[in-house]
Fold this sequence. Notes:
Elements: H1 7-11, H2 20-36, E1 39-41, H3 44-53, E2 56-58, E3 61-63, H4 66-75, E4 80-83, E5 90-94, E6 100-103, E7 109-111, E8 118-120, H5 123-135, H6 156-167, E9 172-175, H7 179-193, H8 196-201, E10 205-209, E11 216-217, H9 219-231, E12 235-237, E13 240-243, H10 251-272, E14 278-281, E15 283-286, H11 299-315, E16 319-322, H12 333-349, E17 353-357, E18 359-360, E19 365-366, H13 368-386, H14 392-395, H15 397-403, H16 413-418, H17 433-438, H18 444-458, H19 466-477
Parallel strand pairs: 1-11, 6-17, 7-19, 9-10, 10-12, 12-14, 13-15, 14-16, 16-17
Antiparallel strand pairs: 1-3, 2-3, 4-5, 7-8, 18-19
Helix pairs in contact: 2-10, 3-10, 4-10, 5-6, 6-7, 6-19, 7-19, 9-10, 11-12, 12-13, 13-18
Keywords: Methyltransferase, Transferase
GO molecular function, one term: methyltransferase activity
Protein name: Trimethylamine---corrinoid protein Co-methyltransferase
Amino acid sequence: xxxRTNFKAYSSTKMNILSEAQCHELVxxxxxxxxxxxxxxxxxxxxxxxxxxxxxxxxxxVRIPANITERCLRSCQKHVVLxxxxxxxxxxxxxxxxxxxxxxxxxxxxxxxxxxxxxxxTRQSVGWATKVLDALPNIDYAMSxxxxxxxxxxxxxxxxxxxxxxxxxxxxxxxxxDEWGQADVIKMAEIVAGGEEELRRNPFICLYAEPxxxxxxxxxxxxxxxxxxxxxxPTIYTPCIMAGGTAPATMAGVMVQGLCESxxxxxxxxxxxxxxxxxxGGVYTVLDMGTTIFSYGAPELHLLLASLADVAHYxxxxxxxxxxxxxxxxxxxxxxxxxALSIAMTNMSGANLNHDTGYSEYGTTSNLDLVVIADEVLGxxxxxxxxxxxxxxxLALDVIEKVGPGGNFADEDHTEEHVEENYTPRLVNRAARxxxxxxxxxxxxxxxxxxxxxxxxxxxxxxxxxxxxxxxxDIVENAVGHMPGEDD
Length: 488
C-alpha cells in the first residue's frame, strides 16, 4: 500500500472544472485570437511600446504574435505579495491555490446601515465600509465599496483612497479615474510606506484597470497599466464580459474572449517592464435576457470563474476572482443563496484575490449587512477546504478505547486539544428555540446589521501617524482633475 503523505493535496476539498488539456486548448485559442483578430489600444505610448516589442500595429488595432505572448507569460511574476500598510508585514501570498477575499469598488449607490436608505456613495460611506472590512476576521483586503460622489468626480479616487488608508491597515486594491489619479494614489502610498523603493519592495496597494469588452483597451486603462508596470507595483487587469452580449453565448467562447483581453494587457505590462507583477482575472457572467442586467448571481458566473482559476493555475499567473455578491435588491434568502454559492465555489477553485463581497442589485449598490454575512460564510467555506487530517493523533484509537462504549468524550484532554478544529460561528444562530426567542428572535440580517452598526460606532482601526495623514490630506486637497481627452 502506498502511503499518501501530502496532507494538503489529499485531505483538502478542492475543485477543478477543466482538465489540463482543456486549459491548454482555451489558452491556444486566446493566443490565436490575439493574432488573428487582435485588440484595439487607444493610447499612443502603449501602441509604441507594443510596436517596438514586435507586435503588428495598424492604427489602433494590435495583433500580438504567439511567440511574444509566450515570452511574456514566462517573464510574468508567479509570486505576488501584498503587505500590511502600518507594519510592512507580508500578509497575502497571491499564488497557487491561496484564496483571499475582499470587497468590491465603484458602486454608485450604498445602503445606509442606520437608516436603510439607499443613496449615492460618499466619503463617509466609504470610511464606514472600510472600518467594517478592517474589523472582520475573514476579510483579507479592502476595496472602496463606493464611488465618492460628494466631491468632484474627477478627483473622487483620491478621496476614496484617503478614506481607505485612514480606516484599515489591510492591503488595499485601488481603482483610479485615470493615470493622474493613479499617480496621486501611488504618491500617497509611497508616503505611508516610507518611499518609492519601500512601496515596491513591500507593496500594500494593488492597482486596478480593465478593458472594455469586446477587445478594446481604452486610453485610461492602458495608461494605468503602463504606469503600474513602470512603478513595479502589482496591477490587476480584468475584463467584465457578458455571454451573449459582449462575448459569445457559449461558455468556452466567453473564456476565449476574456483571456484574449486579459492576456493582451499582460503583454503590454511585460513589454513595458519585464517581470512587472501582473494579476489576470475577470468578471465573466451572462447577459440576463429577461432583464438585460449583468448578472452577479448567475450560476454561470461561478462556473466561469472557477474555470478561469483552472486556467490561471495552468499558466501559473495570479488570479483575480469574484464572490460574495447578489442580484437581489435586499439582503434576503436570494442574497444568501447567491453569495454563499459563489464564496464556497470560489474558495474551492483556489482563485487568489476575490472581490465584490458586499455587492447587491447586480453590482450597483454596496450593502454592509451582506459583507458581515459573507464574512461568516467565508469562515465556513475555509473550514470546508481545510479538509480532514488523518494521522495517529486524529484517528484517536487510544481515546476511543479509554472512553469505551457508552462513555463520554466531553471531558477528555484529547477533546480539549482538538475542539478548535471545528468551526465556531460568530453570527449564525445554533441556540435552542427558547434561547433564540429570549434574545429577541432576530433574523440573520438583523443580527448582521447590529454588528455593522457596532463596528462603525466602536471599532478603532490602527491610526496613521498625524504627519503622514496631513501629507495625504495635502495631496487630496490639491488634486487636479483632468477631463477625458486631455494630454497633460
